[in-house]
């Protein structure tokens, strides 16, 4: 018997090693990774430079409580602010980062209503789950935190009707990840920002999946030409070391005064040293240009593939975050299984979307190999259909 709760649907694979963009299972079989451990391993596996930084800190001091100053937190926060007027709060996961964002928004505005969107995903804790616009995720856990409303994504009229001077915040992902790799429309996001400004509502952008270079800029919001009041990070920030962050405009700092919020492990030394190094590496113009170039290469390959099979209904995404909408959930399950057999690991999103989140360090050759495997499997699936 297993001594674990069965809350994850686990595949019968045990990963024993990761080298760059490749994973190796217990039988020694290699797999090209198009998942980055669900958007986490942006710099790939076994990076020697990150290993060195982690070992160096491990040899000195793993943990120091938040009762004392931390130069590593200060350094990482400054890099995250990236020249803008944000201050940071560190935690250990995406859900915790959103939890902090929701609390800050309510405290700073003195309002309670929060608007989020259908199909969104913000995490599994009560606040983050209540912000998540998916009934299947709420099931059995009611009552949720009160005063959350879910509106249709990319729809301006419903937002215009619902947002008012009682609204504390609007929270959204700029590309809905778990919901099916659905990009927000640029004009819609700009209008949200405008509506937030006129009603005194805070705009929270959940960058947990889209941030840290994933879409070709440090943060996806930069490509939408807006600045959020609050944004949240996790996943790629620690390249596998658990860490989350909530950033808010400096003007809200007072709302999170001493005693208002906290975490024992948040901003842990090991996490901060790694996060700081990750940012040093990813937030470089050349690195981000490469992500954009490789993202375009991937999209081009996928769009060409879409012309060769009727199993693909849509291809979408930005940078190294791609979604291939297939005809139905059964086709998706079969395709993912065959890809795994062929040595390519992929992800599901929404009902029938094949989600690809390769490490940002992946080579052109590996990207092309992945697209070739996709073509092989989809063409075979089409014949059997
Ligand atoms: C956009 C988004 N927000 C929040 C979360 C929750 O992050 P975590 O699983 O680290 O709590 C996720 C995780 O998939 C996510 O994709």
What does the model show?
With 385 residues, this protein is an alpha/beta fold. The chain has two domains: 15-33 and 284-384, Aspartate Aminotransferase, domain 1; 48-282, Type I PLP-dependent aspartate aminotransferase-like (Major domain) (Aspartate Aminotransferase, domain 2), CATH 3.40.640.10. The protein is built from twelve helices and 17 strands. α3 runs parallel beside α9 (269-282). The longest helix has 22 residues, at 285-306. This is Acetylornithine aminotransferase.
What's a quick, concise take on this entry?
The protein is 38% helix and 19% strand. It is α/β, with parallel strands linked by helices. Pyridoxal-5'-phosphate is lined by residues 93-95, 98, 121-123, 173, 177-178, 206, 208-209, 234.
Q: Measure the end-to-end span.
A: 37 Å
Poorly predicted runs are none
Q: Structurally, how many domains make up the residues?
A: 2
Name of the CATH class of the largest domain: Alpha Beta
Structural class, by secondary structure, is alpha/beta
Quickly give the CATH architecture of the largest domain.
3-Layer(aba) Sandwich
Helix percentage: 25-40%
- Strand portion: 15-25%
**Numbering strands along the chain, what is their spatial order in the largest sheet?**
4-12-11-10-7-5-6
Q: Characterize the largest beta sheet: strand count, sense, and whether it forms a barrel.
A: 7 strands, mixed
- The CATH topology of the largest domain is given as Aspartate Aminotransferase, domain 2
Number of helices: 12
Modified residues (N6-(pyridoxal phosphate)lysine): 235
EC number: 2.6.1.11
Catalytic activity: N(2)-acetyl-L-ornithine + 2-oxoglutarate = N-acetyl-L-glutamate 5-semialdehyde + L-glutamate
Protein name: Acetylornithine aminotransferase
């Amino acid at each position: 018997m297993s001594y674990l709760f069965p809350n994850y649907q686990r595949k019968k694979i045990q990963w024993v090693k990761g080298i760059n963009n490749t994973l190796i299972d217990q039988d020694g079989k290699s797999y090209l990774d198009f998942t980055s451990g669900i958007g986490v391993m942006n710099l790939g596996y076994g990076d020697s430079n990150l290993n060195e930084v982690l070992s160096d800190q491990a040899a000195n001091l793993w943990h120091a409580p938040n009762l004392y100053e931390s130069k590593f937190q200060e350094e990482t926060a400054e890099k995250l602010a990236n020249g803008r007027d944000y201050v940071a709060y560190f935690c250990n996961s995406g859900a915790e980062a959103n939890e902090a964002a929701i609390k800050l928004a309510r405290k700073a505005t003195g309002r309670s209503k929060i608007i989020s969107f259908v199909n969104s995903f913000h995490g599994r804790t009560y606040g983050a789950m209540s912000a998540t616009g998916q009934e299947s995720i709420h099931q059995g856990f009611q009552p949720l935190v009160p005063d959350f409303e879910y509106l249709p994504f990319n729809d301006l009229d419903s937002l215009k009707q619902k947002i008012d001077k009682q609204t504390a915040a609007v929270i959204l992902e700029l590309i809905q990840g778990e919901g099916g790799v659905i990009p927000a429309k640029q004009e819609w996001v700009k209008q949200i920002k405008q509506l937030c400004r006129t009603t005194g509502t805070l705009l929270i952008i959940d960058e947990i999946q889209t941030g840290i270079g994933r879409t070709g800029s440090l943060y996806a919001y930069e490509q939408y030409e807006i600045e959020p009041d609050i944004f949240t990070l996790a996943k790629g920030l620690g390249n596998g070391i658990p860490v989350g962050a909530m950033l808010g405009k400096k003007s809200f700092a007072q709302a999170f005064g001493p005693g208002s919020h906290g975490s024992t492990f948040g901003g842990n030394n090991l996490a901060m040293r790694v996060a700081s190094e990750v940012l040093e590496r990813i937030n470089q113009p050349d690195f981000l240009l490469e992500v954009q170039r490789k993202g375009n290469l991937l999209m081009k390959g996928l769009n060409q593939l879409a012309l060769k099979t009727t199993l693909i209904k849509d291809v979408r995404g930005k940078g190294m975050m791609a979604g291939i909408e297939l005809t139905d959930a059964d086709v998706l399950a079969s395709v993912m299984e065959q890809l795994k057999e062929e040595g390519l690991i992929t992800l599901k999103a929404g009902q029938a979307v094949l989600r690809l989140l390769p490490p940002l360090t992946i080579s052109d050759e590996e990207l092309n190999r992945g697209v070739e495997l996709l073509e092989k499997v989809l063409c075979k699936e089409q014949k059997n259909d």
